Amino acid sequence: MGIPMEGETIQIHSYKHDGHIHRVWEETTVLKGTKSIVIGGNDRTTVTESDGRTWITREPAICYFHSQHWFNIIGMLREDGIHYYCNLSSPFVVDDEALKYIDYDLDIKVFPDMTFVILDEDEYEEHRQLMGYPDVIDKILKANMDKLIKWIRQKKGPFAPDFIDTWYERYLTYRNF
What is the pLDDT of residues 100-121, one digit of tens each? Predict the structure, then answer.
């Protein structure tokens, strides 16, 4: 596994359990890169869906990936505060092509007041049957969902006050105006 260098621009590739590409983010600037953590920033980056459709993100975002946790966290800076989108996923890997992970459908959307909703439970169950997620993966994902909810409630990691703002300030130092 490679370690992305601070200041480097990388792609992020999301896959499904069956190995098919799910989504590609074209450009994310690495703000911190170690064997266990990658923190990146992007703004108005092109995203390509598995069916070829593209769209552009609407606001700056700070992305948090960890090699030991089965989730990743995106903090989006909006006018009314920081909104988080959390994907239950495999831990990340990095190769010469991109930072990569498997998206396991379950998501948590967190609002600026730190209330949250769990999304896509039906999609998870459908894909679990269709793609044959092993029971061990199901147990790992449920345990990591609990861990993620604790992080949200305890304002830990990317949910800590000033975490997203601090990394966004660093991201701004890399932007070309």
Answer: 999 999 999 999 999 999 999 9
pTM over 0.85: yes
Two structure tokens written together for 99: 């930072």
- For residue 156, give both structure tokens: 């830990």
Residue 78 among the catalytic residues: no
Q: Which of 23, 44, 170, 175 is catalytic?
A: 23
Residue 80 inside a domain? The answer is yes
Is residue 3 situated within a structural domain? no
Per-residue pLDDT, averaged over 78-98, amounts to 96
Domain range enclosing 109: 9-171
Q: Which residues are annotated as a binding site for Mg(2+)?
A: 87, 103, 105, 107, 120, 123
Q: CB–CB of 12/40 below 8 Å?
A: yes
